[in-house]
C-alpha cells in the first residue's frame, strides 16, 4: 500500500516537471518556427509518465533518453527526472540519466555543470566515493558550484577518514563561506594527532595539536589527546592536570575522561584509579556524579565508584526511595553489597542509550565526536541521569 502511494506521488511529481518543461520547449519551438518531431513532444512525455505510474521505469528511462536528442530544452527535464529518481532511492537509474546527459557533446557549459553536480550526488548517494570525489573535484573551480562541491568533498573525506584532505577542503571552504560545523577542523587535527601518536610520532602529534589550538582554544578533545601523549611519556601529573581541565571545561564529558584514565591505569606504571576521587569537586553531589559517570564508563566495580554509591542513591530521585526500601541504608552496605548494587545499576544503565544527538535525536550507548546519523560534530549530549535510572523506579515496590 505504502509503495503504491509513493509510486503515485512520484508519478505526479514527474508529471508536473515534464509537462511544464515540455510545454516550455514546444512554446520555444513555435516561437522560432522550428520543425516539430513526428510525435508531439508533450505526447512523448505523457507516454513516459504512463510508464512511470505503471511501474515500468526502464521503459520510461529508454524513452526519456531517446528524447534527449530532440534539443537542449529537454536537458532540464532529464536533470529533474534524474534528481527525482535519486530522491526516490533509485540511484542506479539516476546515474543512467545523468551519464547519458553528460555524453552529449552539444551541452552548454551551464547544463554540463548542472549534470556534473547531479552525477556527483548520484555517486555519493550510491556510496561510490571515489567516483564522487573525482566528479566534485571538477567543480571546485566553478564559481556557481564550488561551495556545494567542497561541502560534499568534506563529507567524503570524513567518511573515508582522509583527514589531511579534509583539512585542505575545509580551508578552501572557509575562504568562501561559513563552514557548517565550525569545530570540524579542530577534530580533523585531533584525528591526525591521534594517528601520529599511535605511530609513535609524538613530535608530529604535537605539531597537529598546535595547529588545532590555533583554530580552537580550550578544546576538550585536544586536551584528551595531550593527556594520552603525557601517559605515553610517563608524565602522570601533567596527564592528570589535563584530564581535570577537560572535566572543568566540559563536565558532561566525565565518562569519556574516566575511560581515558582507565586506559592509562592498565599500562605498566600507570596511575591508580583510586586517584580519581580527586578529579571532581568534593561534596555529595559531585561524588554522586562521579559514581554515575563511573558506571556509564563501565568502571562500576572500581573503589572510587563503590565509595560514592551512597551519595548517588541519596542524590538521585529514582534511587532514594527504592534502594532503601529494598535493601536498607546504602551507607551501611559492606563491600559485597555495594558491588551487587553497582552491578545492578550498571545493568539498568546499559538498557538505554547513554548519549543522544541534539540535532537528529539519534540515541547511542557510545560517545562519538561526530554523530553517526547526521554527521554533525559535537552534538552528542549525555542522557540525563534521572532518565537513565528511571528503570529502577519502575522496577521498584508499588
Give the helix/strand layout.
Elements: H1 2-31, H2 41-53, H3 57-67, H4 73-88, H5 91-102, H6 109-125, H7 129-137, H8 146-159, H9 163-176, H10 184-198, H11 202-215, H12 220-232, H13 236-249, H14 254-265, H15 284-296, H16 303-315, H17 317-320, H18 322-327, H19 335-351, E1 355-357, E2 363-364, E3 380-382, H20 385-388, H21 390-395
Antiparallel strand pairs: 1-2, 1-3
Features:
single chain; three-stranded antiparallel β-sheet; mainly alpha
Descriptive report:
This protein is mainly α and 398 residues long. The protein contains 21 helices and three strands. β1 and β2 form a beta hairpin. The longest helix has 30 residues, at 2-31.
The average pLDDT value, as a whole number, equals 78
Helix content: 55-70%
**Sheet with the most strands: spatial strand order:** 2-1-3
Order of helices and strands: HHHHHHHHHHHHHHHHHHHEEEHH
Strand residue content: under 5%
Q: Strand tally, please?
A: 3
Q: What is the makeup of the main sheet?
A: 3 strands, antiparallel
Poorly predicted ranges = 5-9, 32-38, 391-398
* Radius of gyration using CA atoms only: 30 Å
Instruction: Report the structural category.
Output: mainly alpha
Q: What's the tally of helices? A: 21
Distance between the termini: 45 Å
* Shape estimate: elongated
Amino acid at each position: 500500500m505504502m509503495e503504491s502511494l509513493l509510486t503515485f506521488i512520484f508519478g505526479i511529481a514527474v508529471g508536473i516537471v515534464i509537462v511544464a518543461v515540455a510545454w516550455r520547449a514546444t512554446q520555444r519551438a513555435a516561437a522560432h518556427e522550428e520543425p516539430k518531431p513526428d510525435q508531439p513532444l508533450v505526447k512523448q512525455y505523457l507516454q513516459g509518465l504512463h510508464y512511470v505510474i505503471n511501474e515500468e521505469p526502464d521503459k520510461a528511462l529508454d524513452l526519456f533518453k531517446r528524447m534527449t536528442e530532440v534539443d537542449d530544452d529537454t536537458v532540464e527535464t532529464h536533470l529533474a527526472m534524474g534528481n527525482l529518481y535519486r530522491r526516490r532511492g533509485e540511484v542506479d537509474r539516476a546515474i543512467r540519466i545523468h551519464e547519458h546527459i553528460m555524453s552529449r557533446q552539444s551541452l552548454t557549459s551551464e547544463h554540463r555543470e548542472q549534470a556534473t553536480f547531479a552525477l556527483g550526488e548520484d555517486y555519493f548517494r550510491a556510496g561510490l566515493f571515489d567516483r564522487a570525489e573525482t566528479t566534485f573535484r571538477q567543480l571546485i573551480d566553478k564559481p556557481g558550484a564550488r561551495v556545494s562541491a567542497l561541502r560534499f568533498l568534506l563529507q567524503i573525506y570524513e567518511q573515508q577518514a582522509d583527514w589531511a584532505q579534509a583539512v585542505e577542503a575545509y580551508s578552501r571552504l572557509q575562504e568562501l563561506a561559513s563552514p557548517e560545523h565550525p569545530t570540524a577542523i579542530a577534530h580533523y587535527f585531533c584525528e591526525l594527532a591521534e594517528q601520529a601518536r599511535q605511530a609513535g610520532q609524538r613530535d608530529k602529534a604535537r605539531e597537529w595539536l598546535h595547529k588545532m589550538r590555533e583554530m580552537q582554544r580550550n578544546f576538550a578533545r585536544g586536551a584528551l589527546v595531550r593527556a594520552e601523549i603525557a601517559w605515553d611519556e610517563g608524565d602522570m601529573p601533567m596527564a592528570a592536570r589535563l584530564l581535570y581541565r577537560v572535566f572543568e571545561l566540559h563536565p558532561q564529558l566525565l565518562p569519556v575522561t574516566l575511560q581515558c584514565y582507565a586506559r592509562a591505569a592498565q599500562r605498566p606504571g600507570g596511575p591508580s584509579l583510586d586517584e580519581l576521587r580527586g578529579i571532581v569537586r568534593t561534596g555529595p553531589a559531585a561524588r554522586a556524579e562521579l559514581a554515575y559517570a563511573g558506571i556509564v564508563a563501565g568502571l562500576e566495580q572500581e573503589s572510587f565508584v563503590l565509595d560514592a554509591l551512597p551519595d548517588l542513591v541519596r542524590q538521585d530521585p529514582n534511587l532514594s526511595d527504592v534502594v532503601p526500601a529494598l535493601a536498607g541504608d546504602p551507607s551501611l552496605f559492606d563491600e559485597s553489597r555495594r558491588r551487587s548494587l553497582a552491578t545492578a545499576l550498571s545493568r539498568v544503565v546499559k538498557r538505554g542509550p547513554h548519549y543522544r544527538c541534539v540535532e537528529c535525536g539519534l540515541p547511542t550507548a557510545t560517545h562519538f565526536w561526530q554523530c553517526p546519523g547526521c554527521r554533525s560534530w559535537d552534538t552528542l549530549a549525555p542522557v540525563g541521569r534521572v532518565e537513565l535510572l528511571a528503570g529502577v523506579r519502575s522496577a521498584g515496590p508499588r
